[in-house]
Amino acid sequence: MRNHVQLSESIPVISLLAVTGGFLESYSFICRDQVFANCQTGNLVLLAMYFSQRDFFQAFTYTIPVIAFIIGILLTNFIRDTISQKFLHWRQITVCLEIILMLLVGFIPCGPRNIVATTMIAFSCSIQVETFRKVKGTGCATTMCTGNLRSAVDFLYRFFIRKEKSALYQSSRFLTIIAMFLGGAIAGGFCTNFFSYRAVWFTLIMLVIVFCLMFSRPDGEAH
């Protein structure tokens, strides 16, 4: 009996989403008041730092994306548990929502409304990270690198020290995802410098491809 891998856990889908995650990280930092829309750890640290300095307005800037991230996680779980899958899979619905959000962000000029844009990006990234949580059955993230780097090094250790042959291939998966994330971050930096706030529309290319790929259901396997 063959082992089936859900399409949502495949290397092509996860890689495209990693490019999107890296792109949005550069975009939000360069164009949207140096807020880390993907990585809430950085926002929490900055929130605490500004709060300790009694700069409450600046602290508030970093609070909103964190709240948006939390709401996005809750909404994703609600969609997964309640939405019918007669035509679209629940993951496709979340990708559609992310596409709409990124389309709207591209209409928001840089300036006083940056908080609106970063909130929408954080909300979108939380949906992505909650929807796509594995690569070929192993936990991973497409909007940050810390956990993926840990997994890559862990599998390398198991290959070189424990002599587990399959560990090298598993490590290469995570190194690929990290490379795609970094590529997305580099592309995000270049595109943002050239196209400013509209650069976010480049992420629509990856998201639309992911959406289309998920219509494929190999061996009748639910994706």
Automatic annotation (TrEMBL):
The chain crosses the membrane at residues 59-79, 91-110, 172-190, 196-215. It comes from the Bacteria. The keyword Transmembrane applies. Keywords: Membrane, Transmembrane, Transmembrane helix. The keyword Ion transport does not apply. It holds the Pfam family DUF1275. This is DUF1275 domain-containing protein. InterPro entries: DUF1275 (IPR010699).
